[in-house]
Amino acid sequence: MVAPLGLIAGKGELASILVRKLNADGLPLVVVTFDKSTKETISKDTKMVHRVGLGQADKVIKIFQKSGVEEVAFAGKVDKRALFENPVFDLRALSLLKNLDGLNDDAIMKAIVAEFEKEGFRVASQIEMFKDLFPGPGLLSKRAPGKKERADIEFGMKMAKGIAALDIGQTVIVRDLAVVAVEAIDGTDETIERGGRIAKKGAVALKVSKPEQDPRFDVPAVGLNTIETMIRVKATALAIEANKTLVIDMPAVVKTCDRGKIAFVAV
């Protein structure tokens, strides 16, 4: 008998994509989510969905143990701002947080992964699970970047990699060789919204991985909401790091880029 995969599902479409993929392959899974709307969405595809409080680490582990889970995967975004909204932490979660040097993404996620491994679970690589969703280098849209956009992409990629190395964020918005917005706790789409308001029009968005990115969690990702946000703020180009950035629902993303005349490249 195949052991079920334990999925920790964050917000967004990625968790639903994985659930549908596993269902199509006939593989069992047990899902834990912290978000009400995510539970409602995923419950359409599987009945093994548990919603728990964000700080209930021990409950998550016990659900997986009782279900016979051997491997755990993360998919989707858990909004870190929730940590500042007074969630109720159990003793296991409090112990994890107490031993952290700070509340940066890497520190939190590595501590969570280590806790799962301590309990005997394997933690799956997102790149292995979603390998078809990481495009290689090349033009992904019909429209190619113009000369000015290419210059902003070359400049912006260097800036984005520098910011990512500091574990601040993985998205940078550039216009005319100037950084107009940097992702922090707000996330990709809100950074594009903010940068677009500042740039007015013609902004270029860059999405990259961190140096030594841990493929088990928080790989850089863009999706349909990303492109719709770019269209709304009149941004004109999106460049992602090839082979390291996950594109959720590529056909819909490319179609929307073409509709909005956005140049989309992997570099």
UniProtKB/TrEMBL annotation:
The residues covered by the LpxI C-terminal domain are: 138-264
Which segments constitute the LpxI N-terminal domain?
A: 5-133
- Please state what the protein is called: UDP-2,3-diacylglucosamine pyrophosphatase
The record's InterPro entries line, in alphabetical order, gives: LpxI, LpxI_C, LpxI_C_sf, LpxI_N
The organism named in the record is: hydrothermal vent metagenome
Question: Which Pfam family is an annotated match for this chain, by its short name?
Answer: LpxI_N
